[in-house]
Specification:
single chain; 208 residues; alpha/beta; 5-stranded parallel beta sheet; two-stranded antiparallel ribbon; 9 helices; globular; binds BIS(adenosine)-5'-pentaphosphate
């Protein structure tokens, strides 16, 4: 299966992706995780992306498109993949379309996680990531065990100011891909409000 997860920052895409990949056995390809890894490694791409990410802005299309198309051409994606955070603009969606057509593949489904703006800041500000396991926690909604607290990371773009900026970019640049995929008959909407387990149950229905 080739699928795309779309939704505002903090909608729960990463949380649900980690549950889905176990079930579907396909690689989870998060553009945000790949960019953060490049920043950490100090590659040329990471250095270029860092200032955009810290400010909650989008990294330029050409950088992200090249990164993702290279990734999905790898052998582990031959039978499917789950894209999380890409595409995020119409040019990215069009570039993916062209690459899929050239490879003789199609996207099977696009899941849109719907969460009201009013909930987004609280989800992001309270998020904590485990750099060792990749597990995503939330100080209130999914608290980490005491013994892990010291090693958890608070993302640089999880400040209230950067989240507001990311949300405004989402509405301006990413929301237009919703009608793009709706027009192709690929979009399935998932209510992202509720506990992570409730959302997982809705995802399972959307995929059935
Ligand atoms: P990226 O890493 O993709 O961030 P994002 O899309 O903003 O999404 P998040 O990772 O913030 O949220 P999520 O939906 O995965 O939520 P999560 O499951 O963690 O991108 C970061 C940056 O990289 C961008 O700003 C941009 O600069 C750049 N970038 C990336 N891709 C790009 C692209 N294609 N083009 C250009 N630039 C790009 O959940 C959030 C929190 O809520 C967690 O604490 C979690 O525990 C909690 N939570 C989850 N589900 C629930 C629930 N049901 N109820 C209560 N709490 C919940």
């Amino acid at each position: 299966m080739r699928m795309i997860l779309v939704g505002p920052p903090g909608a729960g895409k990463g949380t649900q992706a980690s549950r889905l990949v176990d079930k579907l056995g396909i690689p989870h390809i998060s553009s945000g995780d790949m960019l953060r890894a490049a920043v950490k490694e100090g590659t040329a791409m990471g250095v270029a992306a860092d200032r955009f990410m810290k400010a909650g802005q989008l990294v330029p299309d050409d950088v992200v498109i090249g990164m993702i198309l290279e990734r999905i051409a790898k052998p582990d994606c031959a039978t499917g993949f789950m894209l999380d955070g890409f595409p995020r603009t119409i040019p990215q969606a069009e570039a993916l379309d062209v690459a899929m057509t050239a490879a003789g593949f199609v996207i099977d489904v696009v899941l849109l996680f719907e969460v009201p703006d009013a909930m987004i800041v609280e989800r992001g500000v309270g998020r904590r990531n485990d750099p060792i396991t990749g597990r995503i926690y939330h100080v209130k909604f999914d608290p980490p065990p005491d013994e892990l607290v010291d090693r958890l990371v608070h993302r640089k773009d999880d400040t209230e100011e950067a989240i507001d900026k990311r949300l405004s970019y989402y509405h301006a640049w990413t929301a237009p891909i919703v009608p793009f995929y709706e027009g192709k008959g690929l979009l399935r909407r998932v209510d992202g409000v509720g506990t992570p387990d409730q959302v997982t149950a809705r995802v399972n229905v959307a995929l059935s």
